[in-house]
Write a structure and sequence with these properties.
The chain has 167 residues and is α/β, with parallel strands linked by helices. The chain has one domain: 3-Layer(aba) Sandwich (Rossmann fold). The chain has a four-stranded parallel β-sheet, covered by helices on one side.
Length: 167
């Protein structure tokens, strides 16, 4: 049944359509997995609200616990909606994300590819690994904090300026 449905999609369908299909299946998978699915998926409505609050307009976007990359996709959609000169063009955004689970890193990379986004997703525990030397390096930071992380070692983060600069 699923293959027949995909066979009916026109060959000239836009990448945006495939992105929507991919996001739909991510959401369905997250719902079927229950709490474990929430490890990589933040509901679209929550992500959309976060993006509308920060109003990104291009530049570098960082998500230190990026899951499947939904925040990047919504950032690009927001930019495209608000910058009409970008209709059908590159959104001008470059994304960087960290994710601790390899399978979820793969989902995020696929999400970027399906949605035509440029960037890097690396496997790392954001509390201890700063692969992008992120302090001050990004125009926007979006995150749904990684609540699923086991105990964080205070000694491992107390001297890290990413966590103690703002009090």
């Amino acid at each position: 049944q699923l293959l027949r449905t995909f066979a009916d999609i026109p060959a000239d369908a836009s990448g945006d359509l495939f992105g929507q299909i991919y996001e739909y299946f991510l959401g369905e998978f997250a719902r079927s997995e229950g709490q474990k699915g929430g490890e990589f998926f933040t509901p679209r409505s929550v992500v959309r609200l976060m993006v509308e609050i920060i109003e990104p307009h291009g530049g570098k976007v960082f998500d230190p616990a990026c899951g499947s990359g939904g925040m990047f996709v919504q950032s690009a959609h927001f930019i495209a909606e608000h910058r009409k000169e970008l209709q059908g063009a590159d959104s001008g955004v470059y994304v960087c994300g960290l994710e601790k689970t390899l399978d979820t890193v793969k989902l995020a990379r696929m999400n970027l590819a399906v949605n035509g986004l440029r960037g890097e997703i690396k496997q790392a525990n954001t509390y201890y690994d700063d692969h992008f030397d992120s302090f001050g390096a990004f125009d926007y930071v979006l995150a749904n904090p990684p609540f699923n992380v086991d105990e964080v070692s205070l000694s491992g983060v107390e001297k890290d300026r990413r966590f103690n600069t703002y009090g």
